[in-house]
Amino acid sequence: MSFCSFGHDHDLRSPVFEMRTYTTYDGKLDALDARFRDHTTALFEKHGMKNIGYWIPTDQANTLIYVLSHKSREAAGESWKAFINDPQWKAAYQASIADGKLVSNIDSVFMNATDYSDIR
After folding, report:
1. Residue 64 in contact with residue 107, Cβ under 8 Å?
2. What are the structural domains of the chain?
3. CA distance linking residue 114 with residue 120, whole number of Å
4. Distance separating the N- and C-terminal Cα atoms of the chain
5. Digits of tens for pLDDT over the chain (120 positions)?
6. In Å, how far from its chain's centre is CA 96?
7. CA atoms within 13 A on the CB side of 47
């Protein structure tokens, strides 16, 4: 029996979820929230990324966590590239940081749903 030290092997062309955790500078979470609500979520959909959910932890300040679904890991890369180069995103981003940058750190984790998960 062979075990992979990185978990299960998955095809790069299979559906994949991405969990992103944003840490904001003090006092900037509301502005980040507004940017996502007013601009980012629609632009994600425009570029092929499905919004699964958004959360603000109850025991972790200055944090927004969200999950996106992508058709594949390869598609995720293409979607992010298109999103970052979108003129609407560039304008929304610049407007949102007029009073200073909002985000101090971003963590991204790609995940595959298990066969016993309700979401696949």
Report:
1. no
2. 16-108 (3.30.70.100)
3. 8
4. 27
5. 333 334 445 556 578 999 999 999 999 999 999 999 999 999 999 999 999 999 999 999 999 999 999 999 999 999 999 999 999 999 999 999 999 999 999 999 999 999 898 886
6. 18
7. 21
